[in-house]
Amino acid sequence: MWNKLKIQLSQTDLILKLLDQNDMKECKLVKKPCNGNFLQEIDSTKEPINITEYQQIIGRLNYLAQHTRPDIMFTVNQLSRFSTTPNTKHWVALKHLLRYLKGAVNIYLEYTKSTPIHPISELTGWADADYGNARDNRKSISGNLVLFFNNPISWLSKKQSVVAQSTTEAEYISMNICAKQLRWLTFVLKDLGQNITKPTLFNDNSGAVIISKKASLNANTKNIEIRFQYSRDCVTKKLLNIVQVSSNQMIADILTKPLSTLKVIQALQQLHLVNPGGVSENNRINAQ
């Protein structure tokens, strides 16, 4: 159900079903989706496991991550990379994620009637990247989040298609992906009758922000492919604002890397993921 002040989305039934199917209803709880050394662990070579079972669980977790649980998107995306060659290390990491969901089974995504996070933009994008963290090919991870009136409406975590030559380039590529999503959502919202002002894109890398605002590339940045110049083109055409924020303010951080327990808790608040506490079941929409 929903009211004039808020809408709450949850997939509690799906999580409970996953826990039951994997005999984890009484498992020990953990407070974050993955360990700090998660990326090193899953890149190791160990004994293979049942591919079909692994793929089935990953498929359900991906459905959950895409619809109501951006907090697990990074972990699910990384585990999905090994869907055709899973081993015991991947299984351990998968079980860790299920243990996290067991402790967060009732968390819901809440949409509220709120003011924009940036005073001149109803629609904001947050672009982050973790440079060269893929041990097999050194590709970086992009994490993008889009907010509408401070409510998350789109998020992704994915490995970049090319090997970035620097942290700045990795961040710039991530900004380009987010800029495309912002433009598309601008058109969608206008079709729905929303009067959208120029969106704002936030990034925490000063070099990437500077490049996006320049009319031309220099000797240090000309290696960046033409297809990654979309955000700069949008700025030139005055279709997009680019604003630098500090790393502590980057709310897309959870989409690019493992975080500490404290930062996971902070990210849940920033992503409007709420522990229901005393909230009535009648105010929750089950999105399964």
From TrEMBL:
InterPro entries: DNA/RNA_pol_sf. This is Reverse transcriptase Ty1/copia-type domain-containing protein. It comes from Austropuccinia psidii MF-1. The lineage of its organism: Eukaryota, Fungi, Dikarya, Basidiomycota, Pucciniomycotina.
